[in-house]
Amino acid sequence: MQSDYAWPTLLFVALAVLSVAADWRRHRRREADRAAGRTGWVPWPLVTVLALIMASLFAAWWIGDT
Questions:
Q1: Predicted confidence band at 59 (pLDDT cuts at 50, 70, 90)?
Q2: Who has the most CB within 10 Å: 1, 17, 22, 23?
Q3: Which domain holds residue 33?
Q4: How many CB atoms within 10 Å of residue 58?
């Protein structure tokens, strides 16, 4: 039987990958976008760190559950 911690682990890993891609895209924006006020409001590095912490926590619980 599959552990209850598998899906949250995979979802947090996906969120971490998504936030890294979004931060990469944010850094590639042109200066004209910033001057026009089209800046992002999501702190992607913080989202990345929190998602990786939660993914490692759920992965540890997943490993310990077997």
A1: very high
A2: 23
A3: 3-63
A4: 21
Tokens in use for 33?
A: 């976008």
pTM equals 0.81
Amino acid at 24: W
User: Helices 44-65 & 6-27, crossing angle to 10 degrees?
Assistant: 160
Cα 43 to Cα 23, 37, 39, distances in angstroms: 8, 16, 11
DSSP at 62: H
Per-residue pLDDT reduced to its tens digit, 13-52: 999 999 999 999 888 777 666 666 666 788 999 999 999 9
Q: How far apart are CA 5 and CA 40, in angstroms?
A: 32
- The structural domain count of the chain equals 1
